[in-house]
């Protein structure tokens, strides 16, 4: 039987100095009726907490660790970079190398600017879209999460959905009135909004496969529709590929679905576990960014040499033959076995997956196509499931509205371990 004495002690202490004891809200595990574990270290697909318990990890730092924890080649690259200087605020060759790898892999990106996080990437991309079009409004989709910049905190997913808060105090009305949120996969409502306000719309920003309301797949004609209506109206189409970039394929969701946006936001995997974000797209648009153009955006640590070293090595490993097939096969196996177990124990759940990410929506017959439907999931059951899985040595996201990620480090034995842990959990909860 596990105990979490030291984690509890650390959390108590943390709460005195850090709001809620955590540096990002979902980590507090509130919505699953638990307290956070404090991690001591990770290796491959496993993490160990400060009380000596081990867990098979399906959070993988919320997506970046597609190679697992402490991949030896990434560790070597990071060590080597650290020995030659951690930050200069002067260009380094690593920035060019990472930019080149991104431009080569992501089909719609001709030029790319490196930043430090996904939030920075999305807020900068929207500023660029506004600067480029001279228009103010942006359209986003309910349940999609694009980081925590003011304009995006309207019907957002991830932690905002997890905690059930409508938006956020501190975001001025004048800012959110320029953000229109519409249901994902609903062409009719979007068309109506555009017929009314289309001439004022600078951009439509979308997670091509939303993963912050749980994993929700776009209808076959939805992304092509977005591409067509934005093109027709001179609206910039932004794909937020912070999660799907280098996850669905080397070229991200745009390559997977063969739909080219005007701008793309990246984060997570391109930093190999260190803080890197990026936004890029057609040169004609990107050339509006300072110093070439008037749209301002800057950052002291942007293109950081250690973070870019981790990113370069990660992308290099991902581009070796067979990586995406291996990830896909493992996720297919896991999802199929979970489906069988759901049936066996009479647990109503809908599993939605693409490539190596998935969500199991409890209490649902599915398919889940938008945030309204996702939010009808049985979150109380999810909480119980989370706690059982933790006891059984598996760490899944402490929220129904996130994704589970399989990494290259997950072995077939690991997957069988997760399947057994799920069976034990379902037995108790059925
Ligand atoms: N917004 C992140 C998940 N989509 C959570 C980040 C974190 O808590 O570390």
If you had to describe this structure to a student in words, what would you say it looks like?
The structure is a single chain. The protein is an alpha/beta fold. It folds into two domains: 5-70 and 322-429, Aspartate Aminotransferase, domain 1 (Alpha-Beta Complex); 72-318, 3-Layer(aba) Sandwich (Aspartate Aminotransferase, domain 2). Helix content is 39%, strand content 15%. It is built from 15 helices and 14 strands. Strands 4-10-9-8-7-5-6 form a seven-stranded mixed β-sheet, sandwiched between helices. The chain has a four-stranded mixed β-sheet with strand order 1-2-3-13. A hairpin with a 4-residue loop joins strand 2 and strand 3. Helix 2 runs antiparallel to helix 11 and helix 14 (379-391) packs across helix 15. The longest helix is centred in the last third of the chain and has 22 residues, at 323-344. The radius of gyration is 21 Å and the shape is globular. The two termini are 21 Å apart. Bound molecules: (4S)-4,5-diaminopentanoic acid. (4S)-4,5-diaminopentanoic acid binds at residues 24, 26-27, 62, 158-159, 212, 402. (4S)-4,5-diaminopentanoic acid binds next to helix 5.
Core attributes:
430 residues, alpha/beta, Aspartate Aminotransferase, domain 1, Aspartate Aminotransferase, domain 2, seven-stranded mixed β-sheet, binds (4S)-4,5-diaminopentanoic acid
């Amino acid at each position: 039987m596990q105990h979490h004495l030291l984690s509890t002690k650390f959390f108590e202490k943390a709460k005195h100095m850090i709001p809620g004891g955590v540096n990002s809200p979902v980590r507090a595990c509130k919505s699953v009726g638990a307290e956070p574990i404090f991690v001591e270290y990770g290796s491959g697909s496993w993490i160990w907490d400060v009380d000596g318990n081990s867990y098979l990890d399906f959070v993988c730092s919320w997506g970046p660790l597609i190679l697992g924890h402490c991949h030896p080649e990434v560790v070597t690259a990071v060590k080597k970079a650290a020995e030659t200087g951690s930050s200069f605020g002067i260009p380094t060759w690593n920035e060019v190398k990472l930019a080149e790898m991104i431009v080569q892999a992501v089909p719609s990106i001709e030029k790319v600017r490196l930043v430090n996080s996904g939030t920075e990437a999305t807020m900068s991309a929207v500023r660029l879209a506004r600067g480029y079009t001279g228009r103010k409004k942006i359209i986003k989709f309910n349940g999609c999460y694009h980081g925590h910049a003011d304009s995006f905190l309207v019907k957002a997913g991830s932690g905002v959905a997890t905690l059930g808060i409508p938006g956020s105090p501190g975001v001025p009305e004048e800012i959110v009135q320029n953000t229109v949120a519409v249901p994902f996969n609903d062409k009719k409502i979007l068309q109506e909004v555009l017929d009314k306000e289309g001439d004022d719309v600078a951009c439509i920003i979308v997670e091509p496969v939303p993963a912050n309301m749980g994993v929700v797949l776009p209808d076959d004609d939805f992304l092509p529709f977005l591409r067509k209506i934005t093109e027709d109206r001179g609206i910039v189409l932004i794909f937020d590929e912070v999660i799907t970039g280098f996850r669905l394929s080397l070229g991200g969701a745009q390559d997977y679905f063969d739909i080219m946006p005007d701008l793309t936001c990246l984060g997570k995997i391109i930093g190999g576990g260190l803080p890197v974000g990026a936004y890029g797209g057609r040169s004609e648009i990107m050339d509006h960014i300072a110093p070439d153009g008037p749209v301002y955006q800057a950052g002291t640590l942007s293109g950081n040499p250690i973070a870019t070293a981790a990113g370069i090595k990660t992308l290099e490993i991902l581009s070796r033959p067979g990586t995406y097939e291996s990830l896909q096969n493992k996720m297919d196996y896991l999802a199929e076995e979970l489906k069988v177990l759901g049936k066996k124990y009479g647990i109503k759940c809908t599993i939605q997956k693409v490539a190596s990410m998935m969500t199991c929506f409890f209490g649902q017959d599915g398919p889940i196509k938008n945030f309204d439907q996702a939010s009808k999931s049985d979150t109380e059951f999810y909480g119980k499931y989370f706690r059982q899985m933790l006891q059984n040595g598996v760490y899944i996201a402490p929220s129904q509205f996130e994704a589970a990620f399989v990494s290259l480090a997950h072995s077939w034995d690991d997957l069988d371990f997760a399947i057994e842990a799920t069976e034990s959990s379902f037995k108790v909860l059925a």
